[in-house]
Amino acid sequence: MKHIVIAAALCLFASGAIAETVVPRAPSCTADATTKKLAGAAKTSFMKKCETDSTAACDAAAADKKLAGAAKTSFTKKCIKDSVGE
């Protein structure tokens, strides 16, 4: 019984620690462009720069996670899609 109580306490502690490390996501490039009311060439330029920056950041994150091959491609593709937006 003592072991069950200790295990439950550790689980609650771990879930609280994990919840504290969650970082709020930054808004997507599309949302930023909309907020800034960009249109035409200004929006195109902004989106291209934002995608380039996102690609670099996602590649760095994949390298930090030591991903390679299909895992790296999948991670990078999803990361860029999330950063740029729909």
- Global Rg: 19 Å
Name the helix and strand elements from N-terminus to C-terminus, one letter apiece. Answer: HHHH
β content, as a range? under 5%
**What structural class do helix, strand and pairing data support?**
mainly alpha
How far apart the termini lie comes to 51 Å
Note the main sheet: none
Total helices: the number is: 4
Give the beta-strand count.
Answer: 0
Poorly predicted tracts of residues: 12-24
Roughly how much helix do the residues carry, as a percent range?
over 70%
Mean pLDDT: 79
Short description:
This protein is mainly α and 86 residues long. Helices cover 78% and strands 0% of the residues.
Describe the protein in words.
With 86 residues, the protein is mostly helical. It has a domain at 26-84. Helices cover 78% and strands 0% of the residues. The protein contains four helices and no strands. The protein has helices spanning 2-20, 29-35, 40-64, 69-84. Helix 3 (40-64) runs antiparallel to helix 4. The protein is elongated, with a radius of gyration of 19 Å. The N and C termini lie far apart (51 Å). The model is unreliable at 12-24 (pLDDT under 50).
